[in-house]
Fold this protein.
Amino acid sequence: METKPRILIVEDEPAIRAGLIDVFVYHGYETDSAVDGKQGLSKALSGRYALILLDVMLPGMNGFEVCQTIRERQQDVAIIMLTAKTTDEDIIEGFSLGADDYVGKPFSVTQLVLRVQAVLRRSQPRHQLNQIITLTQTASIDCSNYCGLQDLQHLTFTRREIEILQYLQANNQRPVSRNELLNKVWGYGNHLHMETRTVDIHIAKLRRKIEPDPKQPRFLVTIRGAGYRLKTNTCEHE
């Protein structure tokens, strides 16, 4: 019998938590829940979940702290943050800590379910993609271990950043549009609204990591009116 995907819902508002549990049970998921940040972190680290729905404004330990601690211990579990705080600074912080997606409150339940499905699809291993991306003789990225080197400086990446780099590398003979990245990397179809600033935020973060001068990118370049290209040396499989 096929195992149901298991979701941990970390939400302190009882009505929202109960509603999310009902929704995801109805859609065929197994659910668990936590009422605050500390309980959520304990369950996240001790249980095996496919995905964590993580509220940001939690008592005791906020969602950013929980996300950061989870990512320090494991990379495999998908994390979607739920919050009424949707400024660019808040979104950047969530993504910087390793969140896979960021959903603002109030949200459409249908949209949230579709986003969960999309994140879980993209969370599956993709062994056919290049695991080593070589930028120069002194700069490379180890996709399987979420790390890299740039002129002897150690770099760390989130899973989403690695997925972007791998997709751009696999299609490096042409520019890749924002919408294509949302569709192929995030797994969002055209029917699922997702602001393209999410892509821009990730590209800006990647440039700060891999570019000697992020304001004048050499590797992750913008093709005006078309999208992004990753310019690298040869890539190889481990």
About this structure: The longest strand covers residues 78-83. The radius of gyration is 18 Å.
